[in-house]
């Protein structure tokens, strides 16, 4: 478990599943419906089960994900980019979905990461309550810490349902965030190469 998740679990003892289901019943009543009608009887159970999937990132261990690295890559030391990694997250302000894609690159320094692990890192951080900025920085930081590469580039583009379904009600707008470390931070040319590889088809 990473430091952030550990701190949270120590600070706030988790309610039981029954308490969580009761909280859903309260929200159903607050919305104006009747939790005892047939169609809603199993809803609290379903919602809590769905939450345990949607927020599985609190229990995930980022160190496990970062554990699978390889050295035997015939001296390959250029950019490794995994683009168009889809994710679903939830904003920490409204608990509404954030739907987007992450593009992640690093410049290896001897070691490379299992390719699927890059997408798994996105899952760990997306399946928590987030701001897009924090998620972008956390992904870059995790790869930096776990792999010590020459540089990391993370580009996240997402639509926030809290801006589409409610409030300002602007659907279709996209928020872009980037974090660059190491050579990507120091070199505008490396940043440009990353962006053109992300955008190029
Ligand atoms: N920077 C940032 N802001 C976010 C993110 N997700 C949601 N928000 C914003 O968080 C802000 C919360 O603003 P508040 O004024 O406290 O809440 P609100 O009254 O519900 O705001 P409105 O959405 O403008 O109706 C809003 O501007 C949201 O658009 C995110 O990932 N990053
Ligand atoms: Zn929001």
Automatic annotation (TrEMBL):
Molecular functions (GO terms): GTP binding; GTP cyclohydrolase I activity; zinc ion binding
EC code(s) of this entry: 3.5.4.16
Sites where the protein binds Zn(2+): 91, 94, 162
Coiled coil: none
Domain GTP cyclohydrolase I: 21-198
EC supergroup of this enzyme: hydrolase
Alphabetical UniProt keywords: GTP-binding, Hydrolase, Metal-binding, Nucleotide-binding, One-carbon metabolism, Zinc
Origin superkingdom: Bacteria
Any Gene Ontology CC annotation: cytoplasm
Pathway assignment: Cofactor biosynthesis; 7,8-dihydroneopterin triphosphate biosynthesis; 7,8-dihydroneopterin triphosphate from GTP: step 1/1
A GO biological process held by the record: tetrahydrobiopterin biosynthetic process
Cited InterPro entries: GTP-CH-I_C/QueF (IPR043133), GTP-CH-I_N (IPR043134), GTP_CycHdrlase_I (IPR001474), GTP_CycHdrlase_I_CS (IPR018234), GTP_CycHdrlase_I_dom (IPR020602)
Catalytic reaction(s) noted: GTP + H2O = 7,8-dihydroneopterin 3'-triphosphate + formate + H(+)
Subunit structure: Homopolymer. Toroid-shaped homodecamer, composed of two pentamers of five dimers.
Family label: Belongs to the GTP cyclohydrolase I family.
Protein name in UniProt: GTP cyclohydrolase 1
Species this chain originates from: Ciceribacter ferrooxidans
High-level lineage: Bacteria, Pseudomonadati, Pseudomonadota, Alphaproteobacteria, Hyphomicrobiales
């Amino acid at each position: 478990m990473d430091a952030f998740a550990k701190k949270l679990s120590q600070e706030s003892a988790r309610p039981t599943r029954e308490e969580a289901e009761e909280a859903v019943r309260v929200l159903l009543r607050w919305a104006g419906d009747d939790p005892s009608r047939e169609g809603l009887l199993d809803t609290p159970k379903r919602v809590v089960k769905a939450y345990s999937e949607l927020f599985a990132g609190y229990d995930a261990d980022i160190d496990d994900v970062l554990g699978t690295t390889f050295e035997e890559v015939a001296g390959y030391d250029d950019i490794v980019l995994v683009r168009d990694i889809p994710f679903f997250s939830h904003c920490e302000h409204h608990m509404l979905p954030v739907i987007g894609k992450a593009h992640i690159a690093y410049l290896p320094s001897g070691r490379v990461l299992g390719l699927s692990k890059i997408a798994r890192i996105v899952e760990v951080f997306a399946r928590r309550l987030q701001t897009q900025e924090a998620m972008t920085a956390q992904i870059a930081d995790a790869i930096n810490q776990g792999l010590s590469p020459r540089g990391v580039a993370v580009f996240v583009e997402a639509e926030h349902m809290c801006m589409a379904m409610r409030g300002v009600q602007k659907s279709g707008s996209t928020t872009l965030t980037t974090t660059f470390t190491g050579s990507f931070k120091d070199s505008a040319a490396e940043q440009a190469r990353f962006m053109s590889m992300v955008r190029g088809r």
